[in-house]
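ok trying again, last paste got cut off:
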Amino acid sequence: MTTQYAVLKGLPNGLALDAGKLFTLAAPDTVVTGNTFLFSNRTNANTQYVVSIVRATALPAGDYTLIAYIGSSPKVEIALTFLGTDGETATETARLAELDSAVLTQLDSIETDAAASVGYLTSLVSSMTTLLGRVTAPVYGMWIDLIQMLTGTGTANVKWTTKALENAPTGSGGVTTIVTLQSVAGISPGVIVGPSEPLVIGDDYLTVMNRSVRINLLDANGDPAEVDYGTYALDDSGISIQMLLAKSGKPSVEALIVGTCTFFPAVDTIPPYLIVEFTKTETAKAIPGPYDMQAEAVWNDGKVVTFAPYGQIEFTRNIGRRT
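nice, full thing came through this time. structure:
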């Protein structure tokens, strides 16, 4: 007589397994006869059962399926590989699904298409990178030239073309009025030099109306001012900046004229600057004469920085009014 073994795993402890059936992989519904099955529940690894298969001659080498029963009720199925020797313990076999030719053809087609797609995307990325390189530098140069043409700043000495000047409307229609101030911005208070013309009481100074107040942020030497304050900077997200005007010599909170500011960092030779907007409701509070300026930056976490508190701006009732 011969005895070969198999191990069933992952079962509840204490099952009274008492019968088994063997099938070959080649004939999966034909019972292999001549077997006596004995089941033993391991003591410590008690979710495992050792199956003793007693036969007159050892099972031939090959792949088998073993089903263990309690009475006529199947409890577990396992795929095994025997080598055909007496006393051996079969190894548990993972059965692989074999794909038919049609499925294999589809998979090959998918792989081919995927490889083609990767090649196409690689080519597309390369082309986009090349296009971006061709566009970015000229557009950046045009932007710098446009800023210098509008503001008169910089060293490129770019000019409006004759045709552009011919197409420009007469008067101030369509032309942005930017009142430029020079501001010293830093940790220490600085000075804002007033604009070349007074602001008109009761007028709007809004970007949407092509009319705004620009403040260049410069240091005492006329160089771009430092706009960082330790770990804080004027170009941080979540910052709000206001320009506060108070009648010169009469710093009264009730008399404050408040404008909203948008910060623009330095670009090439263009210094950092603020675009300040005043509504006519605010400018209507003014009376003719000079006003002191103070900018206040407030971050989301409550950090507050004030700068340029000593600057002045002139208001008038009869200069620069639009018709």
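cool. Residues 2-92 form a domain with the Immunoglobulin-like fold (CATH 2.60.40). The helical segments are 101-151, 162-167, 280-283.
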